[in-house]
Specification:
CATH topology of the largest domain: Purple Acid Phosphatase, chain A, domain 2
Shape: globular
CATH superfamily of the largest domain: Alkaline phosphatase D (PhoD)
Structural class: alpha+beta
Distance between the termini: 20 Å
Largest sheet: 6 strands, mixed
Radius of gyration: 21 Å
Number of domains: 2
CATH class of the largest domain: Alpha Beta
Length: 413
């Protein structure tokens, strides 16, 4: 087994005592390599403009992207030339300064590697009188887990009513979410990667013909510190030690399911994914998509299986490789799927919802008694997931909204 030892300035952003608070949310750290990092933060517009610098890092360069609407301004910082340790970020305006310290950690997965995951974060509001969720309390027990990173699986906010009309409304909904106290605390002490699904892309069940998708991409990229994505869509990949993640866009290229030549990923993204999986030297490879991937049964929600040509191509390729695991959200329940239809057992961890209303699989539902369910792994209330990798073993865990373990399942069996 090949083991990778990567030293990287992955940081826990710790506010230094004695400095004036400027940010109302963040800083939040995104994609990080051995010499670069992406950091997001939000301030009241009256605090802008801001200047940024790195103490004792003379070679560091900071590219700051600013986006302001009404009361709030967000900044996405792309920092290169980091020191191996003891980095300090200075955030300053004309009258105040705030500093955060970057504590370097060892990006080594040869012993153990763990990450949190979840989807469907419906902000508390009028809709939840009809469809109750959990508020944002779930992020408090999530903050207590010592993990390497957090994967956001889509529907990270919910655009409702007029939110999709323009950039200002999309910005407003994201800003309201980030201002929630438990959310603001949670995003500060983890490394975060995200994809989107229909509700943070556009209207419910929206597809690639959605007219404001370029605006949605601008806002999405502004609120997350992901690696660079192509000009079309938001898909990307990244490595963490001996693990590689393929983060997919299930909206930009999606056609209507009824089309004879329907597509969810589109030819370019599908080719990029399959080639990436085949060329990857990582011990474990995770394919991450908002929609359920390997589950072919049921019609209640959008599933990758409805796009048969792409479904067959991807699962055939995955069955020819070792240690490919699928991750999804969307369905407002959590479960493990097992699919043996392609000559090798494939697994998928579908995890949802974080705060949105629950969906109960009942006898009247198409997926009731689904033979692709792993027995004993269905949970139909607010929850979050955790995956821990130790050498060849992969442990899946589901926790309820109070942080209590609901079940775990380990591979290999």
């Amino acid at each position: 087994m090949i083991r990778y030892l990567l030293l990287s300035c992955l940081c826990v952003l710790i506010p230094l005592a004695g400095w004036t608070q400027i940010t109302v949310s963040g800083p939040m750290q995104g994609h990080t390599t051995d010499s670069t990092t992406n950091i997001w933060l939000m301030v009241k517009q009256k605090q802008a403009p801001l200047q940024f610098s790195m103490k004792d890092a003379l070679d560091a360069a900071i590219d700051a992207e600013e986006l302001c609407h009404k009361r709030w301004c967000t900044y996405n910082l792309h920092i290169v030339g980091l020191q191996p340790k003891d980095n300090q970020l200075s955030i300053a305006n004309a009258v105040n300064e705030q500093r955060y310290k970057f504590d370097a950690v060892n990006k080594d997965t040869s012993n153990a590697f763990s990450f949190l995951l979840g989807s469907c974060t419906l902000r508390w509001g009028p809709l939840q009188v009809i469809a109750p969720g959990n508020g944002y309390r779930i992020f408090k027990p999530m903050s207590e887990h010592e993990v390497d990173l957090m994967l956001w699986l889509g529907d990270n906010v919910y655009y409702l009513l007029g939110d999709t009309k323009n950039e200002a409304n999309m910005f407003r909904e994201n800003a309201k979410s980030r201002r929630k106290k438990t959310m603001a605390t949670f995003i500060q002490d983890k490394l975060h990667y995200a994809i989107w699904d229909d509700h943070d892309f556009g209207p419910n069940n929206s597809i690639g013909t959605y007219e404001n998708k370029y605006i949605a991409k601008k806002v999405f990229n502004n609120f997350w510190g992901n690696p660079n994505s192509p000009s079309d869509g938001i898909y990307y990949s990244f490595e963490y030690g001996n693990v590689e993640f393929f983060m997919l866009d299930g909206r930009w290229f999606r056609t209507a399911q009824e089309q004879s030549d329907n597509a969810l990923l589109g030819p370019e993204q599908l080719e990029w994914l399959i080639d990436g999986l085949k060329q990857s030297t990582a011990q474990h490879k995770f394919v991450v998509l908002g929609s359920q991937i390997i589950n072919p049964k049921g019609t209640h929600h959008e599933r990758f299986a409805a796009f048969k040509e792409e479904y067959d191509a991807l699962l055939t390729a995955a069955a020819g490789l070792d240690n490919v695991i699928f991750i999804s959200g969307d369905m407002h329940y959590s479960t493990l799927f097992k699919n043996d239809d392609f000559g090798k057992t494939l697994y998928e961890f579908s995890c949802s919802p974080l705060t949105a209303y629950r969906y109960k699989v009942r006898k009247k539902n198409d997926e009731y008694g689904n033979p692709y369910f792993v027995e004993g792994t269905q949970y139909h209330k607010q929850n979050f997931g955790k995956i821990t990798i130790v050498d060849d073993s992969v442990l899946f865990e589901v926790f309820n909204k109070k942080g209590k373990l609901v079940y775990d399942y380990q591979l290999p069996q």
